[in-house]
Amino acid sequence: MTESRLTGSRQAVTETYVIREFLKEDIDNVMRINQTCLPENYPSSFFLGLYTHAPKAFLTALANGKIIGYIMCRIERGISSFKRAFPVKKGHIVSVAVLHDYRFRGIGTDLINQGIEGMVSYGAVEFFLEVRKSNAAAVTVYEKLGFEVGRVLKGYYRDGEDAYLMIRQKINASEEADTND
Ligand SMILES: CC(C)(COP(=O)(O)OP(=O)(O)OC[C@H]1O[C@@H](n2cnc3c(N)ncnc32)[C@H](O)[C@@H]1OP(=O)(O)O)[C@@H](O)C(=O)NCCC(=O)NCCS
User: Fold this and answer.
1) Ligand 1 — pocket residues by CB below 6 A?
2) Please, which residues bridge with residue 3 across strands?
3) DSSP 3-state of 29
4) Helix and strand tally (H, E) in the chain?
């Protein structure tokens, strides 16, 4: 678990936040944040399935004991987006969100970086996600974390909007966990 200082200008007092692994009792709060922040919503079984699948890559951020953000991920096998015809384990960022009042303080970045570390611990060497073309905030955050647009997924979302498929390789020394298997 990591602890950081919240010092955003919209915050009158300095708070701390922590990022820790998701617990089953977090489910209602995480689902509420998902419904508040994103149009892509899921039944509880979907969240719990991802938790069972990759618990080290399903994280929640808390400030003053309140859940204010989450990230959940899936490990998949596929062909490398960077090396031709090379099979790899890929980490898929399925969903990430931070409550509006807690944005611009690095919490989203921390969640994604720690989610990536969790995925590396399962052997992932590449990471990807889908994001709405109109979601400039998220695209900016991902680009700052080294993701690039791999391609456009035409009509990916139910309402017909296109997605960017954003991709990245494992890069940081802190991500150099076990990648065998
Ligand atoms: C995407 C999201 C998780 C980012 O969370 P956050 O905690 O605000 O992100 P951070 O504070 O770590 O921001 C990281 C960087 O991106 C920048 N950034 C964040 N939001 C931005 C925006 N709306 N416009 C421009 N830049 C933005 C930050 O300024 C920061 O830059 P810096 O490193 O130079 O300071 C948050 O905006 C969110 O929950 N959005 C709704 C849900 C969503 O879209 N999820 C992603 C779906 S794919």
Assistant:
1) 37-38, 96-98, 103-109, 129, 131, 135-138, 140-141, 144
2) 18
3) helix
4) 4, 8
Backbone angle region of 124, left / alpha / beta, with phi > 0 → left and psi within -120 to 50 → alpha: beta
Which atom from ligand 1 is nearest to the alpha carbon of 129?
48
Fold assignment, 2-175: Aminopeptidase (3.40.630)
Domain ranges of the chain: 2-175
Query: Among 4, 31, 104, which residue has the most ligand 1 atoms within 8 Å of its CB, making it the best to mutate?
Result: 104
Q: CB–CB of 140/175 below 8 Å?
A: no
CA–CA gap between residue 47 and residue 27 (Å, rounded): 8
| pLDDT tens for the chain, residues 1 to 181 | 555 555 443 343 446 999 999 999 999 999 999 999 999 999 999 999 999 999 999 999 999 999 999 999 999 999 999 998 899 999 999 999 999 999 999 999 999 999 999 999 999 999 999 999 999 999 999 999 999 999 999 999 999 999 999 999 998 666 655 444 4
Report yes or no on whether pTM surpasses 0.85: yes
